[in-house]
Every structure is written in structure tokens, then in C-alpha cells.
Design brief:
The structure holds two protein chains of two kinds. Chain A is of the alpha+beta class. Chain A contains 13 helices and twelve strands. The chains are: A alpha+beta, B alpha+beta.
């Protein structure tokens, strides 16, 4: 009889204990699978939101503004905007480029002043970038050049504005004066990103440039490139070279990873994921060590008999390890099925945290979508099988050290 | 003895203005400055150049009408994008009328201390003419033959500049240099008189430079082109209706 057959039979001799061990594996692997998918989805979702609403794959901005990503002083803008746009769009691999101006403003609400952010852009140039159309919940997106605005749903509610209403505000101009503007509310949007829905309105670039005294200027150009997020580092170098060749001074092209410290800020999330996996492994390990050790102790006489029949120590070790591997394998498969199924389902419907974080301004989507992939399955499987072998090692060594005569005499 | 007396008398006579000057208290110097610089009412045209740290400069022209620290109305006449924009000050409130969009906006409170058109002159600086002697206690810190330096401390710490250091031209009674401090006695802006002119019966600064101590390489130059004092305005000249009225104020 082979070791594998013997080990397999042993797993069926104490079904309750084997089931308990298997469930420990299942729970650990299912949790690890889900958490891995969740963390991957959360980090990717954050980066995608960041690229979409803020950074583009690459952003062109004045050199002085490189460390101030959110709101820039208007007098630091990019000049000769039309020429600069032509240069950028001529670079191979540039799919879309859109000039933007972000500015802070205090709006008059029924209950007092409401701080808000305006983002001026060319809506038709935001395909592949902001995709404002996807967020429209009422009305429509402003037309290029029209005196129209689209307001975040919570902000519109706070200001008591609906479609067709007049929207008057005064903003600081590029030279520090006051620039008045009157717009019509053409649309209300719901992005699911708390900060945008509560604080932001979008308006076309051309009237905003006049209002802010920034004709032929913008604060930044968000650029999407072929190859997506991974291609941004190389694309930024090529765009920078084109800008330099065209003679634009003090203008830099920065890939999304190097804008501000958002990318570095998310590094702890990756570390957290690894730590979580490690903790789950330790929990599973201790549970499995316990059940396998109990199994070995309960079979002292039987192991003694096997040793008396000629099983050497290494054979006993292999038998115990194989038993654990079989249980671990089944538990891992079950855990993977459960973990992947839950992750894939939640990956479609999302986990909505908007109620929990509704009072916090977060520059990211409040619905997280776990991302289960082949790598998720491989990482969780490795965890399960490694724990199965490691957890059985000590009990197997204990079993192998048993003296046949002593073991046979034991109760 | 007889021969000495006329010389002694003449010397004494020559010393009298100096003695009188030396005996002036800080508050008397402030009164002298207020008599020259406070406008009970005035009509003026002026120009303002704002130099930004980026090296950009913008120039504005405006017409102003003021009644002490109660009412003021300022209208920009240039550049074209700001022409017609009017500011009405009534006590602690200010309305701004934008003819381009035909809308009026109210600002009040701390907003009145923001720079007007990005300049180093706040809305309060531009539209208020208050006697320092009413607002501050004063102490002479230095004195020469031609100038006297006075440190002012406000009786009310909520004013724009709770502390000031001023240098007064003793001959003309004009504050030629003013250093304004915040409540923690940190210097925030410095005003230098570049030119003063005798207008009616007073010496009045007609060209000043205001430098921010908070932003490097930022300054504003303010020139009075012409000014007429003691204009008989009515309170009804300073209403929202007057602010939004089409045509000349």
C-alpha cells in the first residue's frame, strides 16, 4: 500500500477532525483570496479614480507647480496653450489631451457660504479622461464654450439649484482681482466620489478662461496615452522631449505615479496586504498544527505498530505530511472556490462605503470593486499548501520520534 | 549787557518754532497728520499698478468718491475688462457691481481686508479714511530735525492693523513711511510716500508704494491724478441704486 493511499485512508478514519482541519484551511484560503482581491481592487480603483479625475496618465504643468497638485495659483498657468496642445497631440501614443483649470471659490448658499472647487475643461476632450457623460444624473453635460455648468448632486442640493437655474459666482482672477460669471445649470452629476459630489462643479474652459483672466492659458493638461497606466513613465519622457524641442520653458510632463505623493501613499496598502496574508497564515497554521498534533497523539499506538512493522521515521513523516497535504489541498480548493466566487460577485456589484464615509471628503470612489485574478488564486493556493506542509511538520516529527515499544504500551 | 540783549532776543525768537516742535506730543503729531490726510469728503481720479511675484504688472484707473469712514464709491475706468465695476462701501459692508453680468455681490467681515484687484491695498484701505488719533494711542520712538517716528497701538485689536510704526515729515505733517503690523506684531505691509503735493490748504500724498511683507516681490503703486476735497455729497449718493445706476456716477 502506498504512502498516499495510507494517508488518504487515515484522513477518513477521523472525519470530524479532518473536517475541522479542512475548514480551517477553507476559511483561511477563502479569507486570503477575498482580502487579496479586495486590496488589489481598492488600490487599483483608487489609482484609476486618481488618473481619471486628477492626474491623467501624464500631466503637463508649470514646473513651479509640480509640488502643488490639487489647486494651483492661477498666475502660474501654462501659456500659449493652443501651441502647447498642438505639440502634445503630435507625440506618438498620445490618445487624448485636455486642458483644465481648477480653482477654489466660495459660493453663496441659503445657509451661508459654501466652499467649492470649479474645474474648467473642454467636455468633448474628456472622452477617455473624466468621461463626464457617465456621471450625469439629471440634464446634460455642458457644451464646449457654452455658459453652462454641471454641479455635483450634493452641492446642487446644498445650494438649492436645479436644472435650468442661474448659477452666479465670483472667483479670483489670475491677477488676484474678482471675476464674475453667470452660467446656467445644464446638468447635475453623481460620481460616487464624495469630494466631487459635495464640492465640485464643471464648466467649459473658454468662458472660464475669460472669467479668470486666463485667455489662452490653463493650469494643466491631462493626457491619456496608448498602453494605459503602465506606459505613462515612458510616455512622459517623450512628451517632455517634444515640449523642450518646441521651446516651452519651465513646463514639465509628469507621469501619474510621480504627481504629488499619492503613489507612495498607497505603498503601505501593499505592505498591509502582505501582513494580512501573513496573519491569516499564522492563524491557519496554529489551528492546523493543533488538529494534526491531536490526530498524531490519538494514534500513538497505531504509529508504534507501524514503526514495529518496519516503517522508518522518514516514512512516518511523509505519511503525516501527506495526510495534511490532502486535507490542506481539499480545504484550499474549497476556500478558493468560496473566496473567488465572493470576490467575483462583489467585483460586479461593488461594496458601497458611501454611507460610512459620507461626511468625509475623499478624492476616490466610495464603492470598491474587488479584483480577483489568476494571481489572487495562485497567492491564496500557495498560502494554503504552504500552511498544510508547515503545520504538519512538527506533529510529523513528534510521531517519527515515538519509540515503537513505548508507543505500543501507551493507552 | 545792552549789546547782548538784541542777539539773545533774536536767538530766542529763532528757537521758538523749534521749541514748539520739540514740545509736540505724539498725539499732536497724529492730529497734524490727520488734518492733512483724512478726507472728510473727496472726489478723485487715480491709477494703480500692481506688480506680481511672477513679474506681471497690471494697471487700473479709477474714480473715487468718499465721505470719511462712512461711505465710499469707487468705479474702475480701465482696463476694459474691469471698466464699470463699482464698489460701494457703507459702514462695514461693501457691494460690488459687475456691469458685464449685471450682478451685485455683497462682501463683509474679513473679506474687506482682502487685496482689491490683487493689489496690496485692501478694500478697507481703499475706501476708508479714518483719523488715526481716534483709533490709536501713540508714543514717540525717535526724532530728528526733520522727522519724528511714532509707534501706534490700537485701542481696538480687531482693526486691520492693530500696530503701526510711522515716520512723519515734521515740516509738512505727512506720514512718509508707515509700517503696518498684525495683532501678533508681525509686519504685514509697508507704505512709502513717493510724492506729496500741496493741495488746497494741506499737504497730501499723491504717489505711494505699498509693499507686502507676506509675499516676496509684490508691490502696488497708487497715484492720485487729481483730487478735490470737501465735496458736498448726500447720503443718497451712496446707495445700491446709485451703485447699479447706468452711466456716470
Amino acid at each position: 500500500m502506498s504512502i498516499a493511499t495510507l494517508a488518504f485512508r487515515n484522513t477518513k478514519r477521523h472525519p470530524g477532525r479532518s473536517l475541522l482541519t479542512m475548514l480551517a484551511f477553507t476559511a483561511a484560503v477563502a479569507t486570503a483570496t477575498f482580502m487579496d482581491a479586495y486590496m488589489t481592487g481598492a488600490v487599483d480603483g483608487f489609482f484609476q479614480s486618481y488618473v481619471r479625475i486628477e492626474a491623467g496618465h501624464v500631466k503637463t504643468m508649470p514646473e513651479l507647480a509640480a509640488d502643488r497638485v490639487r489647486i494651483l495659483p492661477l498666475d502660474d498657468g501654462l501659456r500659449n496653450l493652443d501651441s502647447l496642445m498642438t505639440v502634445i497631440e503630435s507625440v506618438d501614443g498620445v490618445v487624448q489631451a485636455s486642458a483644465r483649470i481648477r480653482f477654489g471659490v466660495l459660493l453663496d448658499g441659503p445657509e451661508g457660504a459654501v466652499p467649492a472647487f470649479g474645474t474648467a475643461l473642454t467636455p468633448s476632450r474628456e472622452h477617455g479622461l473624466m468621461e463626464l457623460d457617465e456621471w450625469v444624473s439629471e440634464g446634460f453635460c455642458p457644451a464646449d464654450g457654452a455658459d453652462e455648468v454641471m454641479i455635483g448632486s450634493a452641492l446642487a442640493e446644498k445650494l438649492g439649484l436645479t436644472i435650468g437655474d442661474e448659477f452666479f459666482f465670483v472667483a479670483s482672477t489670475s491677477y488676484g482681482g474678482l471675476g464674475p460669471g453667470v452660467y446656467t445649470v445644464s446638468g447635475i452629476f453623481h460620481s460616487g466620489i464624495t469630494m466631487l459630489d459635495r464640492r465640485t462643479f464643471y464648466l467649459p474652459l473658454v468662458p472660464a478662461q475669460y472669467q479668470l483672466a486666463m485667455e489662452d492659458r490653463a493650469l494643466e493638461i491631462a493626457i491619456m496615452v496608448e498602453g494605459g497606466m503602465d506606459a505613462s513613465l515612458m510616455a512622459a519622457d517623450e512628451i517632455q522631449a517634444a515640449i523642450d524641442d518646441a521651446g516651452f520653458e519651465d513646463v514639465i510632463a509628469v507621469p501619474w505615479q510621480k504627481q504629488g505623493n499619492v503613489y507612495e501613499m498607497m505603498a503601505p496598502a501593499q505592505v498591509f496586504s502582505v501582513i494580512l496574508m501573513g496573519l491569516l497564515g499564522i492563524i491557519a497554521l496554529t489551528t492546523v498544527i493543533n488538529t494534526v498534533l491531536m490526530s498524531v497523539m490519538a494514534r500513538t499506538r497505531e504509529i508504534g505498530a507501524l514503526r514495529a512493522l518496519g516503517f522508518d521515521r522518514s516514512t512516518v513523516i511523509r505519511m503525516i505530511l501527506t495526510e495534511s497535504a490532502i486535507v490542506g489541498f481539499v480545504g484550499t480548493i474549497l476556500g478558493l472556490i468560496i473566496g473567488m466566487a465572493v470576490s467575483i460577485w462583489l467585483g460586479h456589484v461593488g461594496i458601497d462605503f458611501s454611507e460610512i464615509v459620507k461626511h468625509i471628503d475623499l478624492p476616490m470612489n466610495t464603492t470598491f470593486y474587488p479584483e480577483a485574478s489568476l494571481f489572487t488564486a495562485i497567492r491564496a493556493s500557495l498560502l494554503g499548501l504552504t500552511v498544510a506542509i508547515l503545520a504538519a511538520w512538527y506533529p510529523a516529527r513528534v510521531a517519527a520520534r515515538l519509540e515503537p515499544a513505548k508507543a505500543l504500551r501507551s493507552a | 549787557m545792552k549789546s547782548i540783549t538784541p542777539i539773545f532776543a533774536l536767538t530766542l525768537l529763532l528757537m521758538i518754532p523749534g521749541l514748539a516742535s520739540a514740545q509736540r506730543t505724539a498725539m499732536e503729531w497724529l492730529d497734524a497728520v490727520d488734518r492733512n490726510q483724512v478726507m472728510e469728503s473727496a472726489r478723485y481720479t487715480s491709477e494703480m499698478t500692481v506688480h506680481l511675484p511672477s513679474g506681471q504688472e497690471r494697471s487700473f484707473k479709477m474714480k473715487g468718491h468718499t465721505v470719511g469712514d462712512k461711505y465710499a464709491l469707487v468705479e474702475y475706468t480701465a482696463p476694459a475688462r474691469d471698466a464699470g465695476t463699482r464698489y460701494l462701501r457703507r459702514d462695514d459692508q461693501m457691494w460690488i457691481y459687475f456691469p458685464r453680468v449685471d450682478r451685485t455681490m455683497l462682501i463683509q467681515g474679513h473679506m474687506l481686508r482682502e487685496g482689491m484687484q490683487g493689489s496690496d491695498m485692501s478694500y478697507e484701505d481703499m475706501t476708508q479714511s479714518t483719523a488715526w488719533a481716534d483709533q490709536y494711542t501713540a508714543e514717540i520712538t525717535a526724532e530728528t530735525d526733520s522727522t519724528v517716528d511714532i509707534r501706534l497701538a490700537s485701542k481696538d485689536m480687531t482693526v486691520s492693523y492693530p500696530f503701526r510704526e510711522i515716520s512723519i515729515d515734521k515740516t509738512r505733517g505727512v506720514a512718509t513711511r508707515v509700517l503696518n503690523f498684525d495683532a501678533s506684531q508681525y509686519p504685514i505691509k509697508e507704505i512709502k510716500v513717493l510724492e506729496m503735493r500741496r493741495i488746497s490748504d494741506r499737504w497730501f500724498p499723491v504717489s505711494t508704494e505699498i509693499r507686502s511683507h507676506l509675499t516676496e516681490d509684490k508691490w502696488t503703486r497708487f497715484n492720485i491724478i487729481d483730487i478735490e476735497f470737501d465735496v458736498p455729497y448726500e447720503e443718497s449718493d451712496f446707495t445700491k441704486a446709485a451703485l447699479e445706476k447706468v452711466g456716470e456716477f
